[in-house]
Amino acid sequence: MILIGTMNLTRTRDRGNFYCPTCRTPQPFRLRARRPFLTLYFVPTVPIGAAEEFVQCDSCRSTWDTSVLSMDRQTHEATIESQFRDQAIRSAVLVVLADGEISENEIDALQTIANDLLERPMDREELGRLCSIAMENKVLAKNYVLTISRGWNQDQRMRALQAMFLAASAEGTLQPQQIAILSDMREILELTDMEYEAAIEEALQWQS
């Protein structure tokens, strides 16, 4: 009986230092290449595909496309911040939609939050698309924030909470669904009671 199969072989081609987007500090890296091989009796014999190169951080073990090596710290941080702003706006939209509808006051509040608090201009058309996608896919604010907030730093967590609170309170009162979501955010965002209260208090001052 002949045993034939496939396996990936990974080799280190180079080493160096780079700015790791996960660690957010300069770290050593390995430039690695992964290539599929045909195996005969579990021994790799013939390459059956092109080698795929990737960068691996020696510290956190995260992997990246090789283009990460051409980006400096400033570019990385700008990219991460831009991504955060998009995510924070989506989080605020989901909190507003928790009661199944969105009002003109809430639309105005979301645009103001995007433009002023998050410095991410947003027109009504884009906002409408975000709302439609969220409703069609039945995305829940709690699940969404739990998934994407792991990469946020402390300042971003505070700003995201403020955005969600301001959006939820656009009508002057909070609906029960929104109160429950905002309450869950303290644990989801891993904030202390003091940090949570400070963020809400600052949001109230910004609102006034």
From TrEMBL:
InterPro entries: DjlA_N, TerB-like. Signal peptide: none annotated. Residues 91-199 form the Co-chaperone DjlA N-terminal domain. Pfam families: TerB. Gene3D superfamilies: TerB-like. This is Co-chaperone DjlA N-terminal domain-containing protein. The lineage of its organism: Bacteria, Pseudomonadati, Planctomycetota, Planctomycetia, Pirellulales.
